Amino acid sequence: MTRTPGAAIATATSLSDAAGDGGAPRAPQGSGRVWPTDAGGFTTSRMQAIGHSFDRHPLMQLPALAGLAKRLYPTKQCRFIKPGATQTSEFDHDSADSAGRSIDEVFARIEEPGSWIALYNVETDPLYRGFLDEVAASVRELVEREEPGMYQVGGFIFVSAPPSVTPFHIDRENNFWLQVRGQKVMSVFDHHDTELVPAADRERFVLYGNNVGLRQPDHLKRARDFRVGPGDGVYFPSTSPHMTRCEPGWARPGDGISISIGVVFYTSVTKRHAYVHACNEALRRRGLQPRPPGQAAWLDRLKAPLGRVLVDFGRRRGYKPTPSFL
């Protein structure tokens, strides 16, 4: 993937200057942006390559991320993958390093082969909330011409060294996935593929948060592989199965880690589809085979209000809706 010539890069404002009114931290504001590599063909309904200029942003550099990790660790927002994980493993991770290392030790040894740490829901940190607002501002016009009401923007940052993987899984949100440092392969699957992930499994995930695994390893060939470096990225819609691998070969001493961030968000469309999933799940329990959301607009318009009623009824009986409905 080729970056747009002359693309603006993020501000060089130092972190020590990043304070707002009353000393509250805020992200340095710069000129970072995201753009589709096929400007005329961008749509929120399918996966596609994107470019970005956030790779030099001060908050995306390793020292800043180590500081973020120390702030997130007490709330269990640092996640460590199980040793020996493969792309077809269950996406199983812990809130503590398996070797018992501190965050300082983890980052001091982050270039060791197979290292992997993820920082979850970084929007809870005021400094990174500002950074995500900057990314969201750069894509809002692209998104909202098809999916109005972009909201609840979040961030998941992955720092790893080859050989390492992130196993097969799906997310409820739409995702602008940005590669910041190093190289990685992002493999994305069609979110309409019900043989790969049956519709019932998607419904349970949207409603209850039960993630899905890969049922047939030979289905890996269905993925579209995006080989990305700094300034490259991938957009993919809600419930698109995906996985990553960080391969050996490119790493050099002092430059052997991969940094990427998934900037995720909901829209009025993802919320409507969530209510359609809720309706479909109820219909499926009665022996029917309903159409997944997005296949027939007129059916979605009928199902979404029914799904809302079911979710509201369930809430009164103790059901805790996932963020898809909030």
How does this structure look, described?
The structure is a single chain. By secondary structure, this protein is of the alpha+beta class. It folds into two domains: about 30-265, Sandwich (Jelly Rolls); about 270-325, no CATH class. About 25% of the residues lie in helices and about 20% in strands. It has six helices and 13 strands. The protein has helices at about 60-70, 105-110, 125-145, 200-210, 270-285, 295-315; strands at about 35, 50, 80, 95, 115-120, 150-160, 165-170, 175-180, 185-190, 225-230, 230-235, 240-245, 260-265. Strands 1-2-11-8-13-6-5-3-4 form a nine-stranded antiparallel sheet. The protein has a four-stranded antiparallel sheet with strand order 7-12-9-10, with no helix packed on it. Helix 5 (about 270-285) packs across helix 6. The longest helix is centred in the last third of the chain and has 20 residues, at about 295-315. It is globular. Residues about 1-30 have low confidence and may be disordered.
Keywords:
326 residues, alpha+beta, Jelly Rolls, 2 domains
C-alpha-based Rg, rounded: 20 Å
Catalogue the unreliable spans.
1-28
User: How many structural units, i.e. domains?
Assistant: 2
**Structural class given helices, strands, pairing?**
alpha+beta
Number of helices: 6
The arrangement of helices and strands along the chain is: EEHEEHEHEEEEHEEEEHH
Total number of beta strands: 13
Q: Would you tell me the overall average pLDDT?
A: 89
Kindly report the CATH topology of the largest domain: Jelly Rolls
- The amount of beta strand, in percent, is 15-25%
Strand order of the largest sheet: 1-2-11-8-13-6-5-3-4
Find the CATH superfamily of the largest domain.
Cupin
Q: Name the CATH class of the largest domain.
A: Mainly Beta
